[in-house]
């Protein structure tokens, strides 16, 4: 087997980058790697090849990647080019565009935010910098609240600790009403990417030494006021909601991210005083020392929160991811603590907010249960492509969610997923349940009796070679499976053709005679092929507890069989 070697082309590209890199630390890192590769170190050559495997792609998710030197990493050079491209796009369309810049507490977030402010200011933008590391929802709120034309959030959300990223929002004069304060979508992403590609040598790029304004803490106070006010009436989460009887005892974990103080204050303002925090995970720490991955969906991420909840006798556990745009909830059950899936919590919150004239939305990879809830409640349901850049654009939105723990419960405040406001609403539902004797699990039972047992689960296939993903999609298109989960496939929809009033996207949807549904799509942020599986088991409206338990066991078995068949059909490695 051949060993990686430093080719002439790779050496030339690395040296050109090295000459133009604005950061001393990154230049030293790249120089050492280049020297080692030139001396015959195969590991260094392979590392270098990865760093120069092509520019880090700017798309609707902005930028996201591992921090380090090189064109395919997150670093000051890449960020300065992104800021210059964004500035060029804005100033070509608007006179002195206003841009809000926010950041989380990951490695180098402060540098990347400061670079963005300097480059955007020099480009002719009015730049407002958030006062410190804060949740992504505060940035999304600030774009709308301050009438900004764009927003930049330096964050990698729930990615591993080595990553960082760069999200772009539009607002003000740069967007229509439904897209104000929402992340970019095509064709804007491609237009900004073209401007980034057109940026010349960084040594010639203008960077201001000052001239931007650092916002005060009042922007956080305004966000908290807006959230608690929006949820006070109707949502039941705020101080104006149902408050008879004792409030719930709540355990909160921020998973070493920036959401802890804002979440606790939002709960306090909403009347929730009995709040216990996981102290060792409360303060921001970019190393995320107590979790393997800082994602509440990952096994083990909630272990400390659940242990504390058992110790204090809590009624509810709330977890937000490191930039606090996702929310996870767990409640005590008959067999210990039960962590609700994104689809389960989405259905409960949708049922809570649904009424005549309401507009409910979820991504096409989320459960079909929300559509059934909307029909039963006299609300309108609207499917959306994956990601809140699409969900949040649904006209007249009342509530939107995606299965990956993202919920938009106050779209007039934050037109994006928001783990803080969602947590407040969940706490309100639990508080009302203490008054009426109904738990979140009871509410799930009610939904099952009305709409059947919906069981969902992913098949997530990570690859080392990105070419395997389009190859798998090609195989599935050319030769779709005849059966899945023991049931005949009765429908195959190629989502590149659009449909359901949605724009085209790279995905496939399979339906079976037994009522199962599978959506297969490449991940937009990770080297994965993702398959979203759902089965539905009808039950009688008056089914008792043991009957529901049996129906759920049947749904679980059918889901396992479906996931196994889907993994095999892709031709890739089994689920991870």
What's the SSE blueprint?
Layout lengths: L7 H13 L3 H15 L3 H10 L11 E4 L9 H16 L6 E6 L5 H14 L3 E4 L6 H10 L4 E5 L8 E8 L11 E2 L4 H10 L15 E2 L3 H15 L17 E4 L6 H10 L5 E3 L25 H10 L3 E5 L6 E7 L2 E4 L2 H12 L5 E5 L5 H9 L2 E5 L3 H4 L7 E4 L3 E3 L10 H18 L3 H12 L1 E10 L5 H11 L4 E2 L2 E8 L13 E5 L4 E6 L5 E10 L7 H26 L6
Parallel strand pairs: 2-3, 2-4, 3-7, 8-9, 8-10, 13-14, 13-15
Antiparallel strand pairs: 1-5, 4-5, 5-6, 10-11, 11-12, 15-16, 17-22, 18-19, 19-20, 20-21, 21-22
Helix pairs in contact: 1-2, 2-3, 4-5, 4-7, 8-9, 9-14, 11-12
Question: Can you walk through the features of this model?
Answer:
- The chain is of the alpha/beta class and 576 residues long.
- The chain has four domains: 1-53, no CATH class; 56-216, Alpha-D-Glucose-1,6-Bisphosphate, subunit A, domain 3 (Alpha-D-Glucose-1,6-Bisphosphate, Chain A, domain 3, 3-Layer(aba) Sandwich), CATH 3.40.120; 221-238 and 247-449, Alpha-D-Glucose-1,6-Bisphosphate, subunit A, domain 3 (Alpha-D-Glucose-1,6-Bisphosphate, Chain A, domain 3); 452-570, 2-Layer Sandwich (TATA-Binding Protein), CATH 3.30.310.
- 37% of the residues lie in helices and 19% in strands.
- It is built from 17 helices and 22 strands.
- The longest helix is centred in the last third of the chain and has 26 residues, at 545-570.
- The relative contact order is 0.09.
